[in-house]
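Re: duplicated header lines in exported structure tokens

Our pipeline writes sequence and tokens for each protein into one text file. With two proteins the header for the second block appears twice in some exports. Here is an export where it did not happen, for reference. First protein block:
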Amino acid sequence: MDFFVHLAEGFIGMFQKGGEQFVGLVTGIIPTLICLITAVNAFIKFVGEERIERFARMCTGNIILRYTVFPVLSMFFLTNPMAYTFGRFLPEHQKPAFYDSTVSFCHPITGLFPHANPAELFVYMGIATGITNLGLSLGPLAMRYFLVGIVVILIRGVITEYITKMMIRRKEAQATV
């Protein structure tokens, strides 16, 4: 009988923990995201959607700028996870590559701009602790981390865009058969 009681307590305990997690989201990240979304939409309305879209087209018209400047700006200004909303300015076939390059930049930006992804600062700080224990400066580490991150997001963006286009072509070819 004790086994069944323990099983039932564990079963309901799992849902209680899920409820606690849900309450944490409702009182934590969700209001923050709603405020960020509201602020970004207000900024877009204030500046003018035409101007924002013109700037976005300028940044995204070139594949190099699309997967370097655009993700860096989105991560710097909107931070994680709001940064992905910049994808709204891209055509559908470029959105997966933009997401891939932006999400890949979450860590490299933290050395220079910790506000962009404070939840992942522990990754950078772990490395930084080792560097400071060696008596070395963090400036060169942060710059290298940032610059290598830009190279990586460019490579990932270009490759993901290529793969996405290839998959779209295959799907269109299958649809015509």
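Second protein block, exported in the same file:
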Amino acid sequence: MKIFLSSHGHLASGLKSSLEILYGNCDHITVFDAYVDENSVQEQIELFFETVEEDQQILLISDLYGSSVNQAMSMYLDRPSTTLVAGANLAFLIGLMGRDSITREELKDLIEQSREMLCIVNLEEEEPSSQEDFF
């Protein structure tokens, strides 16, 4: 599985930096920080797809559903074995680590788990039950 992660500003490279601190080398993840220079999302996705092998599963991940970055990435959904996920967060990306592939059902479960990691933390409440299972 190859991953293309893009965001407005430096969020994408920051998320990859965090993953590399936790997991080491993440060569299977290509990042593009949009709107920080003259390069476009479309140009970078085209370069990314030049590195993709015919039988590889592709996961495109954007920071925000419906945004310009997400819309640009959606133009590539007609490519074989390509899926687009919006709303990148570190919990979601951690769940992808160590996987060679992921089914649609597993992807839905991982998205739900990563949503649960976004919560208000109160001292008197227990941590979400899925947190132990997640890590």
